[in-house]
Amino acid sequence: MKWAYFSLILIFLNGCSTYKDSINEGLSHAQQGEWEKAESSLEPALDNPQDQLLYLLEIGTLAQHQGEYERSNELLEKADLLSDTFLKESFANRSWALLSNPRQSTYRGNGLERVYISYLKSLNYLALAEQADSPSRKLQLQDAALVEARRIDVKLNEIQAQTPSYQDLDNQQDQAFYLKALNWLGGFYTGGRNTDKFLYRNDAWGRYMEGLQYEISKEYDDARISYQKAAELYQDGYAKQYDLPGLTAERAWLDVIRMMQKGGYSQDEIRRLSEAKLSPQMQKLLASYKQGDGELVVLEHQGFVPAKSEMSLLLYSDPRATSLVLEPFHNGGRREENDVFRWFSMVYADINPLNLIANYKTGGAWGSVSGLFTKRVILGRGVWRQLQAADVDKVLANQFIRITVPYYQRFSLDNSSPKLNISSTAQPQGLRMTSLADIAVQEQLAQGQRDIYESLIRELLRSWIAYKISSEIKDDTAGLLLGLVGQVTVFASSAADTRNWLTLPAQIRLTREPLAPGEYTPEYRINQTLYSHEPIQLKANEIKVWNLRNPR
Questions:
Q1: Which residues, in sequence order, are CB contacts of 490 under 8 Å at separation 6+?
Q2: Please, which residues have CB within 8 angstroms of residue 303's CB and are 6 or more apart in sequence?
Q3: Which of 161, 141, 150 is CA-nearest to residue 118?
Q4: Is residue 459 within 8 Å of 326, Cβ to Cβ?
Q5: Residue 241 · residue 163 · CB < 8 Å
Q6: How many angstroms separate the CA atoms of 282 and 250, rounded?
Q7: Distance from C-alpha of 99 to C-alpha of 497, rounded to nearest angstrom
Q8: 402 versus 181: which is more confidently predicted?
Q9: pLDDT the model gives residue 466
């Protein structure tokens, strides 16, 4: 029995470090733009079966930044197959993760990551097309880029079918009373919060990139349709949800109108849409596009998505209210500690009526106020009796249990105004078209309740197993000692799954400049950093894409 107990302790201690801890060195190199060193550091850190998808994503991205576009696509194509929604997960895999650490389960990715696999592959194919040694090969690679754009469309349609649209959210204000009542009751699980508002339901920038790929292939009507989908998403709620400039929708509408011009729409239709959707500033930009012009498109991929951190919560029981109570604790610096309490209040703190009443009954007026700093899980007398029958109440009475969930610390995006210079002439500034950092944070907000309940069940189970095994030891002294060791071990080994694709950019800025046919040597300045491109030869009606990676 003692040996079984020690074996259990080893299982509990397995894999306690966070994902960020294990890849910190590689990320530090990436943040300095040292792509080869970053890859050398990340490869051994991610060389395990559970992180196979992350290995392909991170290394595939770094290969692109090194200009190895074919190798990047080979890795990302494998990642695309692994990230499929219906990826199977074995019972043994889940059981091991439940007893040890959630990082021991196979990483499956999310909707955003699936979309950006195809996004990066499409950019790889465009870069390879520029290196093609024959027109037929160039056309073949441009078609391959277009295939990836269509994959983006398929993936976004799948996500859109599973989540409420911006119109659905607006319509909730006018729905029937009984539907509002059902939503209110369902809110007890989510703490009274409407997590639908935070879901990644579509991607305006992904739709916009579809339009750009169609335009490069001179399929102007398909480009118009994609640009219009992007414009409608930006104005319906995407720009507001992810804190983007209002000009994002206008930029997309401007490109809709350009495709209408190329597609032979009447001047009256074009004029009406231009007056309805474009400000005088954007109408002036539209007028700068001349027939026969080429265009340089700069895509600045800036920074990195934030890494998840771990938040620790104490779990204890409240038998009088037949409930479990969670409250945060932290021993980090002041800023990090403030972030923990702010995230907890935003995502988990008791705000629904039943929890407020329970807090009041157990603690009077102060109890309901203290609910702002706690989360109460009301079980009811029936469930509480079942816990007593299984001795779970004794586990809770004899020790504190640590629950660990992922969260994001505060971050700020670079709001500098980049400038594109061509032939010593200052050209229009870049426009932030998407914020992957904001998408990642809101995805975590949407699944926060699921994370806390999964962690609660995992830690209760681990503590209960340790308690039951130690209670079977006949020697009282040994049982007491091993029980104490078990409590400390379970407490110390609690962990959260903080994995995500960390070499993705924090934000993407777009600069588009129409140019007469000719040779140009573009320069792009952001803050004090100047990026130069080799001379480009621009033909009439040709689009050149500069995929610029700014790690700072």
A1: 12, 401, 402, 459, 462, 463, 466
A2: 413, 414, 437, 505, 506, 507, 550, 551, 552
A3: 150
A4: no
A5: no
A6: 7
A7: 14
A8: 402
A9: 76
Query: How many residues are given for the chain?
Result: 552
- In whole angstroms, give the CA distance from residue 548 to residue 550: 6
Q: Which one-letter amino acid corresponds to residue 88?
A: K
CB 307: neighbour CB atoms within 10 A?
Answer: 21
Per-residue pLDDT band for 395 (boundaries 50, 70, 90) equals confident
Residue type, 279: S
Is 389 strand, coil or helix? helix
Spatial CB neighbours of 443, under 8 Å, sequence gap ≥ 6: 110, 112, 198, 199, 200
- Strand ordering across the sheet containing 419-422: 425-429, 419-422, 523-526, 529-532
Q: How far apart are CA 268 and CA 260, in angstroms?
A: 11
pLDDT band at 100 (very low <50, low <70, confident <90, very high): low
Residue closest to 326 by CA, chosen among 441, 457, 195, 196: 457
Predicted local distance difference test score (pLDDT) of residue 459: 85
The answer to whether residues 173 and 153 touch, using CB atoms and an 8 Å cutoff, is: no
What DSSP string describes 256-309? HHHHHHHTT--HHHHHHHHHHH--HHHHHHHHT--TT-EEEEEEEEES-PPPPE
Q: What is the dihedral of CA 199, 201, 205, 207, to 10 degrees?
A: 170
DSSP per residue over 62-87, as a string? HHHHTT-HHHHHHHHHHHHHHT-TT-
The tokens describing 547, both together, are: 């995929």
User: What is the phi/psi pair of residue 34, to 5°?
Assistant: -95, 80
Provide CB contacts within 8 A for 510, sequence distance 6+. 251, 297, 298, 299, 300, 430, 431, 433
Task: Read off the tokens for 361.
Answer: 């009954």
| Amino acid making up residue 420 | L
